[in-house]
């Protein structure tokens, strides 16, 4: 769900990009790789990765929303590939498909009309371009008032409350996603789940996020009678006209003054949404391994993973998630094919995991960290791949200094890493699947491509945005770094 944190972290390192040109020449200057490793590396193929992304992003898999049959069918397809490549299942009971609870919601239809002061008829909004329900909404029909409430945060313990003095009972709360300050103490309040809970506890009928453009977002829990949605800044500007500001100005003022700027609005909203909630959904992490060659160290494993899920098919709109994260999944698959081809396996085992539920809040990876297959006594490290499909270079972040020299050495043979930065402090709420491993004290690194990732969580995130070569190059760096790490 979240914009690639590495990208956010590393954008400041653009300058490093300038050194990228060196990559290619540096790559050629390296000591030749031992033949077994070189042969395995040669298995990695951009066309294979591209074909796998195409399959994952196909409407047949309905946008791979965890719990939904489209995801389950895709997971079975991936398990079939793992078996065909000779990876071993990690569970005698479950094979390659590790189940966990994954409630999900499918939005069938939605209509939203906003009425500005003096305009009773109102303006019917266009689905997807003007508004989108959040993909954990209940069904319902309301005609209600609107209240602007800043960041939608009530944090009296931090001396900040957007709801102070506001009556939101039976109304729709309009707010931005973000926090008054860059302060980890706000992390909990910046969670979507916390915002929805706060709004509903204050009596609101729902919450409407203002985003530059509506995005698909399943990162929340179904709440009875609660209707969360998202509108574009353009629509919000029309609603905020009555208080004489644009959404961009309001956001700037909130960040500048760091105090609530909440106010009731005269505009009203008519909103009807039909959604099916499935509390009994089952999600799957798809996992397979290459067993280590050392009788003792094979009980330790390196996890190579990325999320397999995306946001599904709603109201006739497919969110194919080609870059997010069919690309990272295809990258993991290429790394797995190379390890499977290695004659001399590294000392430690390597487990390849396609996680479910990342878009819902890192659910699959959190489950995996809490239920490590009994085959393994310890997860030694984790390499994460999220959004590796767009661009011609890669950004990386690592949480343990010990990993960096392995990534640097590996990239000296490939030359595509544009920036590698240390991640420290709490992973925050906008991380990716490395975060639960990091929180458990496991060394992690996360790599994504340099984008621009402009179709993030949009219907436009299709195969046509994908560059086969960058996925293959990232897989090459990961294979070389992972092999050396697992064999140290
Ligand atoms: Zn992602």
Blueprint of the fold:
Elements: H1 5-10, H2 14-28, H3 35-42, H4 46-56, H5 69-84, E1 88-89, E2 97-101, E3 104-115, E4 123-124, E5 131-133, E6 140-148, E7 154-155, E8 160-161, E9 172-176, H6 192-201, E10 206-211, E11 229-232, H7 233-240, H8 247-257, E12 263-278, E13 282-290, E14 300-307, E15 312-314, E16 317-319, H9 322-341, E17 349-355, H10 363-370, E18 378-385, E19 394-398, H11 404-411, E20 417-422, H12 434-439, E21 443-449, H13 468-486
Parallel strand pairs: 6-9, 9-10, 10-11, 14-17, 14-18, 18-21, 19-20
Antiparallel strand pairs: 1-13, 2-13, 3-4, 3-12, 5-11, 6-12, 7-8, 13-17, 15-16, 19-21
The site of zinc ion (ZN) has 6 residues, from helix 9.
How would you portray this structure in words?
By secondary structure, this protein is an alpha/beta fold. The protein has two domains: 5-102 and 281-486, Zn peptidases (Aminopeptidase, 3-Layer(aba) Sandwich), CATH 3.40.630.10; 105-277, Glucose Oxidase, domain 1 (3-Layer(bba) Sandwich). Helices cover 30% and strands 25% of the residues. The chain has helices at residues 5-10, 14-28, 35-42, 46-56, 69-84, 192-201, 233-240, 247-257, 322-341, 363-370, 404-411, 434-439, 468-486; strands at residues 88-89, 97-101, 104-115, 123-124, 131-133, 140-148, 154-155, 160-161, 172-176, 206-211, 229-232, 263-278, 282-290, 300-307, 312-314, 317-319, 349-355, 378-385, 394-398, 417-422, 443-449. Helix 3 (35-42) packs antiparallel against helix 9 (322-341) and helix 4 (46-56) packs across helix 13. It binds zinc ion. The site of zinc ion has 6 residues, from helix 9.
